[in-house]
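At this stage, I needed to go through a protein sequence along with its fold in token form, as given directly below:
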Amino acid sequence: MKKIWTVRKDTEAVSPVIATILMVAITVVLAAVLYVMVLGFGTDTSQTPTTTLTDTTITSGVKLTFGAVNAEISWADISFLISDGTYSAGWNNLTTAMLSGGLGDTQNLGTTNTAFGTLVVTMVIQDLSGNGKADQGDNIKLTATSFSASVDYVFTAIYEPTDGNMAEATFSG
């Protein structure tokens, strides 16, 4: 029987040093690819996070409390809009630098006023954990001289990177 293959002795193999370097390089590249696939490059801003807003009547206004939020969201990434069907007003460009000291871990995100038809609405955001992010239990207090009992007001939280609605609540004065 004839041999199908023969051992060639006229060529040299890759040196052991180069072979080791190549194996380490391939292992590092594979590990990096797996890391990126599993953990991703960062927060996915292509999808709008969701939450709920629960309204509670308070003196001269309403308190809107966040439900469970399905992503970490900085206050700077959220804008707010209030509308009564005729007029609308909003708050945006909120930053954690606007946080002022509060009680314990509670921090208030700067009190801001906005003209809303003939009504001036004051908004105070209470960040209970003081982490600069919208979390479950954080709340927004909207006060005015007199919200009308015969008008339905719609308050919307908008995620700025996608311009999508995160949550909406309807209340009346």
Observations:
- The helical segments are 16-39.
